[in-house]
């Protein structure tokens, strides 16, 4: 596995933290509309990445009758994120929720942990192959855009000065790089990243898409807005399917 691919993609993901600066000129109504479209796209990309890339790649890797444990790891990945949200307060913020400063600190801590895990997932995907790694990184990046905008809004409303909020948001986002490096080091010691990380990450993706993202766009706004959100969601799914179909050509 190439360390440079891991460093490059995790660095790109970390830079998403600065996207909040581009929202300063938007009023709350326009920002909410933009966020919902981005959330719909992220939900589709995460679901498509899990179904068309991570799970099939894991099955192809082990082959034969050894696939049942993979689905067990899928359930573990799904349930772990459920537990984290229910009992630790690891929530995804995709809208400018009106919370005060203590919640802002909670967002920073939980996001740092979340992004570290994302880095491990990226490293595990690149251990399988560059195409799988790139698709995984893309799905994570699409999810991070609305999340980071929402987190920035939480920090600013919670009393953080805007420049400080941007810097702190980036510091927590940069833990994705640390996670990627740790994943690469573990792969070196273990002679490769265990294949269970792929279905585990797929469970993570499906949980975020179904439990965090889809509920935010479900029944939101007029019929026209609902159709737009579904079309964008479907576009995210189909884009991942398209990449899967093109993989033989991409190598």
From TrEMBL:
It is a multi-pass membrane protein. Signal peptide: none annotated. GO terms for cellular component: membrane. GO terms for molecular function: metal ion transmembrane transporter activity. It comes from the Archaea. It is found in: Membrane. This is ZIP family metal transporter.
